[in-house]
Write a structure and sequence with these properties.
Elements: H1 6-19, E1 23-32, E2 35-43, H2 50-67, E3 75-80, H3 91-96, E4 101-106, E5 109-119, E6 126-131, E7 138-143, E8 147-152, H4 161-167, E9 181-183
Parallel strand pairs: 2-3, 7-9
Antiparallel strand pairs: 1-2, 4-5, 4-8, 5-6, 6-7
Length: 185
């Protein structure tokens, strides 16, 4: 049973993903019994809905069938958007997570905060992180190069509105003492 390489599948599907204005985040190709499993993960600034994913899935399936990449062997195709647990590894991930709570390591130390603006745009080198503090939340500027693993956290309670406002760039949102920016040291 032929199992095409990940690179072969990327070469086939990437133009169709890009034509729809989506980012190709990940492609996985793996044998699964007598068939192959193909997982295509796409995203965009305005998250693709289930109808857009279904349309893209049909298009990719037709293209893979026409390319005869798998020969006569069956395959299972999954086209999806990333889950909340996807690591933030590219500037576009940080931009899309603005306002969300994040757990990350900065220079080996655990930091929890809320994602703010990327700076400078359009070629970001740093990100603003709103961290809780006394007397109120504060904005830290953290170099992207200093960030190790970073993932969005699921919030089960209402977030502090001051944190959300600071993350969205609302001036004076921190209240007394809040809103202070400091460079990561």
């Amino acid at each position: 049973m032929p199992v095409p390489s990940r690179e072969d599948v990327v070469g086939i599907v990437a133009p169709h993903v890009e034509r729809r204005g989506l980012d190709l985040e990940e492609v996985r190709v793996a044998p699964a019994g007598k068939r192959s499993m193909i997982s295509v993960v796409v995203d965009a600034d305005s998250r693709p809905d289930i109808d857009a994913l279904a349309t893209l899935s049909r298009e990719i399936s037709e293209v893979l069938d026409a390319a005869n990449t798998f020969g006569e062997a069956p395959y299972v195709l999954e086209v999806t958007s990333p889950g909340v647990d996807r690591p933030l590894t590219a500037p576009r991930h940080w931009r899309r997570a603005r306002g969300r709570k994040v757990q990350m390591t900065v220079n080996g130390k655990a930091v929890r905060g809320r994602v703010g603006a990327l700076i400078p745009e359009p070629d970001p080198q740093s990100v603003e992180i709103v961290v809780p503090g006394k007397p109120g939340p504060q904005v830290r500027v953290v170099a992207l190069a200093e960030i190790g693993k970073a993932v969005v956290q699921v919030e089960f309670s209402e977030p502090d509105p001051r944190e959300v406002q600071l993350a969205q760039g609302v001036q004076g949102a921190g209240g007394a003492g809040g809103g202070h920016k400091e460079r990561n040291k």
